[in-house]
Specification:
The chain is mostly helical. The chain is built from 28 helices and two strands.
């Protein structure tokens, strides 16, 4: 009995290899498949319930399929695995065009077979972005039965959900009636696209306004520049009037060989693919907007319409496209009776808030709107967060260290910015719970403010040690000039020989000493700060900027003074120390990049503080 089981196991292994092998055309492999089929037929050979036909379909093994075809029945091809997928499902999923055609020659009605989720091979092909296979299956018979699965999602939903936007554009052109089809959650394809933030540039890291969003600012800046320089691979082209289907098609632009070679690098390829996806997603969004039925969403608050969805997910391009085409939709309210200005204020969306104030005609009404709980826009501006992260009060317990400082700084700046755009009569409005906006701000930011105070004090203590050390080193170095002093006059011996170089050394040491002392004074002021919320608006950021700049100059001048001292002692005339100069320059460059990376968020905040304070004309809503 045991030998019998072992023999069957070896036969299954051999058949699996033959079905999966690229050399399946070899007579020996074909014979193995024929023998296995005679013995086992459609019996499962793995714990997924896959048969030998499934593996032939997955690997596109047409030769192996042909050798079994005379002995195949329609019932064999209808056999599904544990997920209910037939061999046609698997061939469609992996884009095996020849295998799909071969199966359909035997029985076309296999396109109607559904798996456990109600997915037909056509749906599977759409979800996998296999346009050629999708076209073949759609030409067989395209009906409501093959378009939807059990949860009501159509093939258009599937392409959007799986980011297959090129195929989605093709489906919209061929079957425009699918645009307004809703699934069991009452979501259309456009509703779903409005939640796909990473499919648009505004949700990526490739925006100059989003510099500081990633852990490495220099790398993000380089990637953003590269993103801007990469040429689009796709462009829109209107279908001509003599064609049966009016709409938009996507034309693939041919690239030069040198461009293909450069973008073949995995790092650049990832940036290129992201940009092309953003282009296709925006084209698809425009096409869906052309055919979208807004009358449904205007009276239904159960499912937010695409404008609300895009605003909540900070997809700025989609919001702009919607408002440019349908400006009246700016009056849309969500299930909580909030307009999109409320949402922009809550998520600290700088671009959207400024865009609405500049482009919307009814800005005064929007600024004065109050939701069903009595909250004004200022109440929503009191939420914790930064422009780089979704504002929320649900995760403040995880806020710690330096991030809490940035959250407090941005929280106060954003709150004041929203406040000065509103009419003064709205500043003290209480919501249904009896809280003013400022009270909610203090309540939401209490934990963050305490964390920020602890972080600032700890960092200032650590930096104070460094500045004290630099101060001591430079003070001592001033009285230990290279070459020593003359006993008779007390002047430096090298003063007559290299006077200019010696004075440069004294300048570097003096500048380093002054900068370190200045840093110590600034850091000591942190210890006396009361850390009120308003301190994070101007006072603390300016002190942090001063400390950052002064400690940088103290360190830089100390290093330059060291190099100048070595120069005075003719160390660099020795040809064996050329590597020292290269090492110092390389280390200095790397340390500067690290310093820029660490301090950029503070300088970014100061830029917007100055911009909002001096270059913005506030538009107070009328009452």
């Amino acid at each position: 009995m045991q030998n019998n089981f072992s023999t069957k196991a070896r036969c299954r292994s051999a058949a699996y290899k033959a079905a999966s092998s690229s050399s399946s055309g070899v007579l020996q492999s074909l014979q193995v498949l024929r023998d296995f089929w005679k013995e086992e037929g459609v019996s499962p050979i793995d714990n997924r319930g896959d048969t030998i036909l499934h593996f032939l379909a997955v690997n596109g093994n047409v030769a192996g399929f042909e050798i079994l075809e005379p002995n195949l029945s329609v019932k064999d091809l209808e056999t599904g695995n544990n997920s209910g997928d037939t061999p046609l499902h698997e061939a469609a999923r992996f884009g095996k065009k020849d295998m799909v055609e071969r199966i359909l020659r035997i029985e076309k009605d296999l396109v109607y077979v559904q798996n456990n989720l109600g997915e037909t091979p056509l749906y599977v092909a759409a979800a996998s972005g296999e346009k050629d296979v999708f076209t073949i299956l759609a030409n067989c018979d395209f009906s409501k039965l093959t378009m939807k699965r059990n949860d009501g999602k159509t093939v258009l939903h599937a392409t959007v959900f799986h980011d297959c936007y090129e195929l989605a554009i093709y489906i919209v052109n061929m079957y425009p009636e699918l645009v307004n089809d809703r699934d069991n959650d009452r979501m259309t394809a456009l509703d779903m696209l409005a939640t796909k933030r990473l499919s648009f540039r505004s949700g990526s890291n490739y925006l100059f306004a989003e510099i500081g969003k990633t852990p490495s600012v220099p790398v993000q800046m380089i990637e953003t520049i590269i993103y801007s320089c990469i040429s689009p691979r796709y462009k829109e082209s209107k279908l001509s009037d003599n064609q049966t289907q009016a709409g938009t098609k996507v034309v693939c632009v041919e690239r030069l060989p040198i461009t293909k070679s450069l973008l073949g690098n995995s790092w650049l390829q990832a940036i290129d693919e992201a940009k092309q996806k953003h282009i296709l997603a925006l084209i698809l969004a425009k096409m869906l907007l052309e055919k979208y039925d807004w009358s449904y969403s205007s009276t239904d608050h159960i499912v937010p319409n695409p404008l609300i969805q895009a605003s909540k997910h900070k997809i700025d391009e989609l919001v702009v496209e919607i408002l440019q085409k349908y400006p009246e939709l700016v009056e849309t309210l969500d299930e909580k009776k909030r307009n999109i200005l409320h949402i922009a204020a809550e998520h600290k969306n700088r671009f959207l808030f400024d865009y609405l104030l500049k482009k919307v005609a009814s800005q005064s009404r929007m600024l004065a709107d109050i939701d069903e709980n009595g909250n004004t826009i200022l109440h929503y501006a009191a939420h914790v967060g930064t422009p780089f992260f979704t504002s929320t009060t649900e995760h403040i317990e995880s806020v710690w260290c330096v991030m809490s400082v940035f959250m407090m700084m941005w929280g106060v700046l954003w709150f004041k910015y929203i406040k000065y755009n509103m009419h003064p009569r709205l500043w003290d409005v209480k919501n249904s719970k009896g809280f003013k906006a400022e009270e909610i701000f203090e309540k939401n930011h209490l934990h963050v403010r305490k964390e920020a105070e602890t972080a600032v004090r700890n960092l200032s203590n650590s930096t104070l040690v460094l500045s004290t050390l630099l101060c001591t080193i430079n003070f001592a170095a001033i009285f230990t000039v290279p070459g020593g002093f003359e006993e008779r006059t007390g002047l430096p011996i090298l003063l007559d020989k290299v006077q200019q170089e010696l004075w440069m050394l004294m300048f570097y040491l003096g500048a380093a000493l002054f900068s370190s002392v200045f840093t110590m004074g600034t850091l000591l002021s942190f210890l006396l700060c009361k850390f009120y919320s308003t301190d994070f608006y101007i006072s603390l950021p300016i002190k942090i900027i001063i400390a950052i700049i002064s400690i940088f100059y103290a360190t830089a001048f100390t290093i330059v003074a060291c190099l100048q001292a070595l120069n005075l002692e003719n160390i660099f005339l020795n040809k064996d120390v050329w590597w020292l100069i290269i090492a110092v320059v390389a280390v200095g460059f790397i340390m500067t990049l690290i310093y820029v990376d660490l301090t950029f968020p503070v300088f970014d905040y100061m830029y917007y503080l100055v911009y909002y304070s001096f270059f913005v004309s506030y538009k107070r809503g009328r009452m």
